[in-house]
């Protein structure tokens, strides 16, 4: 992006009616590693790509459990994501303490968004540099939201954010009619397919990605490496066979 | 009922009789009530038993015959509380919240010893307006042995091999001492607090203790919930007591 005269701080408008600092913050999300999310009538699945800088290090934790019924995947400045996660956990705990029930997803997402908006209208603050995919399940069923550094939030059936996420979004758009009735395994399969579309090179392995899900009668759960392996295998098998073999779940996967 | 640590001025506690020259006046209202109930816990070499009666009383009346005094914190760690039920519920809510926070930070469930310390600290925070609760914290320690922690209302606690709290405490404690305590503390090393009894015998002892206490203590009765915690899981049984 070219240098602008009006981008020094977040409290300055440009003559075109834009606040560049907020847009730059949204750029930061695009620089993060890919995160994918999609939902069916019963479950919501989150998937993130691990980007370990070298063999000597592990990658950052990008999926966070917020409460039994809610979790997030972050893309961008993960430290900002952790800070927001702390806030969300605190809000959920407070709600549980006062009302003895799970916090509705929409309410929490709005609070996060309001929090983010404050950071776009104070001269001594900066916008959050992280995009959050919020996956939750409450009385209204499974919900999926995207919280933006700008302070906006959007509800999605399926979404992908971060680096090379356009490829994932293209895949998700193509198959979106299959998601509402998909089984959990089918959803996970789609998430992995979308994620592998954003890979620069190589194949997905159980160590290079993370999956988490939540749903009706299912607390937020992150899969460990061992539990992830069968899904990776199914993905390879489906890609191996031309035009999709007998993969898990109701949704057949085409390679 | 065991004497409270401070002059709590509950309706059940009888203060000094007012004489003609007595300038002390008793308050018309007390923030506390005693809802009765008894808890017992026994630690074994590979098990832990915790039991509590289910009667909830006030004064000489029964509020319900079916109130649990056992509260699960994590899979194998429980708190048993007798005393003022409102304070018990407030304490349980607060511990559950702290437990969830712990799991977020440490990414693992709370151990019995961690919870024991948390409970002790939180009770002492309210040193000058105490939770009127008589608590036991039970679980398996990292070696798989049973652990029982016993508390007073303001958080003084220690790990023991067995304990009882609540209205029937004075009736049950001598029985447990007789059956479970080492012959002399000078003979055995002080760390040997684990009871040598096998599981079935310890369970029988707990059942007998409650039945006996139910005979004389009006606040203990109706039913006992008995949980047996082992590495294999938690087994729950109920034992009916006399309803009078």
Would you mind describing this structure in some detail?
The complex is a heterodimer of chains A (255) and B (244). Chain A has 255 residues and is an alpha+beta fold. Chain A has one domain (20-229): Glutamine Phosphoribosylpyrophosphate, subunit 1, domain 1 (4-Layer Sandwich), CATH 3.60.20. Helix content of chain A is 35%, strand content 23%. Chain A is built from six helices and ten strands, in the order H-E-E-E-E-H-H-E-E-E-E-H-H-E-E-H. In chain A, the strands form two sheets. In chain A, strands 8-1-2-9-10 form a five-stranded antiparallel β-sheet. A five-stranded antiparallel β-sheet of chain A has the order 3-4-5-6-7. In chain A, strand 9 (209-215) and strand 10 (218-222) form a beta hairpin. In chain A, helix 5 packs across helix 6. Residues 242-255 of chain A have low confidence and may be disordered. With 244 residues, chain B is α+β, with helices and mostly antiparallel strands. In chain B, the strands form three sheets. A five-stranded antiparallel β-sheet of chain B has the order 10-1-2-11-12, covered by helices on one side. In chain B, strands 5-6-7-8-9 form a five-stranded antiparallel β-sheet, covered by helices on one side. A two-stranded antiparallel ribbon of chain B has the order 3-4. In chain B, strand 11 and strand 12 form a beta hairpin. Chain B starts with 37 loop residues before the first strand and ends with a strand. The model of chain B has no long low-confidence stretch (mean pLDDT 89). The A-B interface holds A 65, 89, 93, 96-97 and B 93, 97, 100-101, 104. Chain B: One of its GO terms (cellular component) is nucleus. Chain B: Pfam families: Proteasome.
